[in-house]
Structures are given as structure tokens and as C-alpha cells.
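Convert to structure. Protein one:
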Amino acid sequence: MFRTCFAATIAEVKGARQAFITSRFEIDSKGLPTDANILEFCFPLGAAAVVPKEYQAVEEFLFALTGGGGDRLYGFCRHSLPPNRPGEGNGRGIAKLQRYPQALCIVSPHPWAQFFFRVLEVLDRTLRALPSPTLNGHAFLRDLDAAAPAALGSVLRLPWPACLHVGSLPRQHRAFASPADPGAWLAAGEGGVLELEVPPDVGGGASTAGIPLAPLLWHLTPRLAVSLLAALLMERRVVVVSADLGRLTAAVAAAAALLHPFHWQHIFLPLVPASLLDYLAAPMPFLAGVPAACLPTLRTLAMEEAAFDDLRDLQRSPAEAASTPKAAEIVRAWAGLVHVARSTGSVQRARSDTSIRAHGFVFDLEGFVNGPRRASRLAAFFAAFRHSQMFEVFVVERCAAAAQGYPLTDAFEAEVSDRVGQGASPLAAAAAAAAARGAGSRIGSLWRKTSDVVRQSSDTLVTAVRTLGTLQDDYPLPG
């Protein structure tokens, strides 16, 4: 479920502000980045930029790390001011003091932002109710770890923290009250049980579960959204800018999820700390989120051919947001564009150098780009897109799946199977025969190139994106 959870804050040491971890609850530290590396993301503008405050709104944001084995880890951070406690201040009880913000952070291999933000919220309010704020051996985190692993869409039921009163949670985060007890929070369940819902599969499987698209599309016009998508598909250097860390990191995560069934293969940094801005001068593709406060420094770097999307001045009205797409509808749009890929494979044999060979099969790129009924505008797009690393990985993955009878079961594969069935492609029958013989069999002898290519359902990428439905069910829009 998660790898580590810790609390961090800022303190002045020899006249300089430094970030340090005050307490930690660790499940598996193997392969985790160093504390210094993680703290750079928890306080992205640097410890010197953090000032003590008397009041501060809660701030939640995420970041991405690379584990020791090359796997991607997600960090979820909650900034809030620690509570004033009796005995602090001037000796007259609880005083209003200026304090440095506290960062609660949890690191997980899962991108479940809203799930872990709720975990951090409960943890934050639990710590405020304790005489001494410590994470060491905390029962709530032990119960959360014991409840894993969890299937997408399932509900975890954990013992309600004994020190936490239900009424201490904000009203907007409570479920509908019981008629018999209007002050109760139904998510607490019966017998003191806290319920946390694991994000459901919205069409992209585990890689996109819990990643809403609204934080990105809410702030972009349709033309800018399509331009951003095109820049990502062409594997350019993409920078998203915002002063709000929560909005910024959620938008970058949504941009990566928008690519499904393709996967961004390059540098992915939803949040770039000020100390790591030099990484963006590297001559390689990246998808990065930069705080607006770092723009002056960013402008001094060599950023040729980088695409910038500034979310600060592109807010849209609720009426315009009603036309943005749901994740499931984007999956259907992609299926309409690339489902013909299943008809351009064959047994490995002599081919031109433009073909992709993998797992005993060959993928005919020329046939895919210039196949029958392929609109000229789409052919031009695919002629450029076929050179991207994400498309090559996509083809290799599908060849591997074909060798096993297409065992993939996500929403994209289901949509493609429906379209292939409508077009009477022989691949569906071949895959079914291979699956019936077992996962170890090959269908190379049954996979034949077919001229009966499935009809195109979308003329252009722009049309596919702009004619989609509403996103309001995917993410709570600001009111």
C-alpha cells in the first residue's frame, strides 16, 4: 500500500533554515531515495523560502520519485500548521504563535492521490488530538498497512482512531448524515470503523486509477488541450506552470494519464523543486510541473523547443467545463484512432527496416500509417507519431499480448475488441483460439494480415477530443 510515511518541518540551525524529518513510520525503506532528496520535494521552494505563519490554509500536492530499481514512486504531501499546545507561548495557556508549517508525507507505488490525501487528513487530525505528535508505531498506519493489498474500487475498513472524534473532520468531507443522528459521519461505519475507498478503474487500469482529468482540462481551452496532447505525443519538452502546487501537480499527472493506452517513457516530474531546475536544461523529453515562483530562474535556462502551459491565466467558467471529456470517453477516442493496429501484424518474415519485430511477430508500420480508408490528416499524424518511443513500447506490448492470446482486459482493449469484432477481423478469432490452448501457445501461424481494415470512427485527433462528454463526474470542480 505504501512504503514510508513521515512528518517533517523547518527549523533554524545556526541562523539558517533547514528541513528535517521529525518522526517516521516505515514499511520498506529498500530502494527509497535519501531523506534529503525527498525533503526537496516536500518543501519545493527550499527551506530558506519557508517563513513562520500564524495562519495557513491546508495545501496538498503530489510528486514523483524513482526508486532504486527504476520503479516510479509517488509522494503525497499535506502542508498545515502544527497545533498550538498548552504551555507554549507566554505561559498564559494556548497562545497564537507563528509556526513553521508541518509536512506530512506518504510514499507509495500507487498514484491514488485522493485516497492518500484522505489518509493524510485523518492522520493529521489524529496527531492533533494526541498529547505528543509522533508517528512511531501509530496504530492507524499499522492498520492501513495490514489492509493491503486492495483491489481497485474496493473499500478498506479500518478501526476508527480512538483519539479522533468524528466531528473533528471538516463538514465538506463527511458523508450524508444519518436521519437518526445528523451529526454522525456515515463513512465511520458501525462499531467505530473508518471506510476508505480505493479509486476505481476508470478505463486505464491501475496506472491511471485515481487520476482525474479535470485539474488539467478545467484550465485549458480545447485548442490548448489539443496542443498539449500533440506536444506529448511528439515527445517534446513540456512544462506546466502554476502558483498553486495542488493544481500544478494534479494537472501534470492528468496530462500523463491523458495518453493512455500509451505511457510517457521519459522524465516525469509533476513537481520540480527549485534546487533541481537545472535538470530541465537536459536535451531530452520531459513532462514537468514548475511552481510559478521559479519562472525567473527557468527563463535563464536553455529551453529550446519546450512547450509551456501556464495554468494561472487560463481559468474557465463552469459552463465551459461541462464540455470536457471523461476518461472513459477518451479511451473510446483512442480506440477509434489506433484499433487498426491489430490488423497490421503478421508472422515474422522479411520486411522493410520500418517494421517493428517483437515476440515472433512483425508490425507493419507502413501498412499502419497508409492503410486503406486512412484519412490523409491521420496518416500525416501517424507518420510522425510512429517514431516516438511510447508508440514503439505500445506495439511491443501488444505483440507480447498477441503471443498469449490477448489476455489484456482493460477498458481500452475491450473497446478495441468490440471494434475489431464489428470489422470481422480474423485476429479476434485467432486470439480466442490461442487463449483456449493456454497462455503458453503462440498465434503466429494464425495471425494474417488483412485488407479488411476496420472503419475509422474519428477523422482527426482534434475532433476526437473536442466532441467528448463532460468531466464533472470525475473530479469535484471548484464551486
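Protein two, convert as well:
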Amino acid sequence: MFQFGPDEKTTCMLFVKFERTGSVAADRKENVGPRQTVVTPENAAKVSGIVQQNPQKSIQRTASETGLKYTSTQKYYKIVYGCFHIKSKVIKPYQ
């Protein structure tokens, strides 16, 4: 016959853990969740300076010039300019 549900050993371990801690929740220690980007004024100034020189520069190119990760640079764009950077294009009006 098929056995459904948790194994006897699993049930025993959960029971012992509940008696010891009062909870069966997972033990979350370190490295839980996404990594956090630390915002520093120096890095914000680097990104801002490069964007002011050439606003059409991509996030990837800005990241390689500053030595920051792509996602960190993307976060700086959002903090400094209030939105994610979209590469600008010059559109000529109809004549």
C-alpha cells in the first residue's frame, strides 16, 4: 500500500522541535531574502556624473565604467532619477 503524509521520523523531529522551541517554523538564520544594495553618496555621484555627461548611455555601459554591478547601477538610476533608465532616442518631427 501507498503511504500518504509525513514519515514517522519527520513527525517525531517536528514534535521534539515544538517541545524545545514552542514553534515548528523554519530556522532562518543568514542569507535569507535578496541581497541589499548599499547606497553610498560616492557611488551615486559616480553614476550621476556619467549620466550627466551622456544621458543616452545604457545602464550596462554605466555599470562597467563605474565598476558597479548592473542591478546596483539600475537602483541608482531609480533613486537619483525616480525611474528606471530607458535609452533615449531622438525623434524627428514630420516635415
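The longest helix spans residues 8-21. The helical segments are 8-21, 41-53, 59-66, 70-81.
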